[in-house]
Structures are given as structure tokens and as C-alpha cells.
Amino acid sequence: MRVQFLLIPAAIIASAPVQAKVYMDVAQAQQLMYPGETFQERFVTLDQSQFNAIIKDSDVNIYNRNVKAWRASNGDWFIIDQVRGKDDWISYAVAITAAGIVKRVEILECLEKYDGITVPDWRAQFHGKKHGARFDDIGMISGSTLSSGQMLSGVKRLLSTHAIVLSDGAG
Fold it and tell me: What's the pTM?
């Protein structure tokens, strides 16, 4: 009698389904970034010329033409976005002043193994960045280089989106 073994990689047997961790929802992020402010929804679907201009300006691909932005009552902007991590999407929010300067970056949802990008000191590297700034001083996270690199690209793209589409001088 012949015996056949079914070889199943141990990683498949040992791994449970991976779920993203929700750090906060949109309303919580808005109040954290802009305590006491009210928000007016300013969702935009990028037309072809805006789409091309943002890619050319930021040198970053756009995954979704739908921009989820809110104008805060103080004139600043709150934008949520997603970037591709190694195994899943990362949802994050960026607070951009009316002058186009990053005020704050918060993670809304990501896989726990990307937790390096949730560290406040790492995200603080984006504070003060503005459209056209160099981003080569943002440190990548060992073990999460793809995720941290995608976050860097996403913030850079959102600054271009602000300058080209959302700011008072855009258009």
C-alpha cells in the first residue's frame, strides 16, 4: 500500500485570517486634528487634467480619482486617503493648513504588522512639509519600508492635490 502525504506549508496552517486594526474613525480623527472645528464636505472627482497634473507634479501614482476632503471652519483641510501596504490598504488622514502645510498625519486603519507607521514620532516627520518640499529626510521604517514609503508618497500626492485642486488659488 502506498501512502501519500499532503504537504501544506506550515504558514498556511498556523496563520489566522489577518484583520486590519482600526485606530480611529473619520469623526474621531477630525476632532483630534481640529478640536472644536466644524467641517464642510468637499469631495472631488478628479477630471483627466487634474489627474495628470497631480501625477506630474508629485511623481506619484493615483489609485483613486475620488478625493475625500473636508474644509474645516478655520479654513484648513482634512483629507482621508489610502495607500497600498505590502499586504493590505492603509487608511490615513492628513490635516493641511490653508497655507498648504502639513499639520498632522494620523493612521485610521492598517494591519497591525505595519504598526511602525502608527508611531507618533515617525508621523511627526511630516509636520511642516509643504507642496514642493523635499521628502528625502523622512526616515523609512526597517521591516515596514514599503508601508512607510507608500505613506510618504501619499502625503506628497495629497500636498499636490491640495495645491492643484483644493486650495483657494487652485484651478
Answer: 0.86
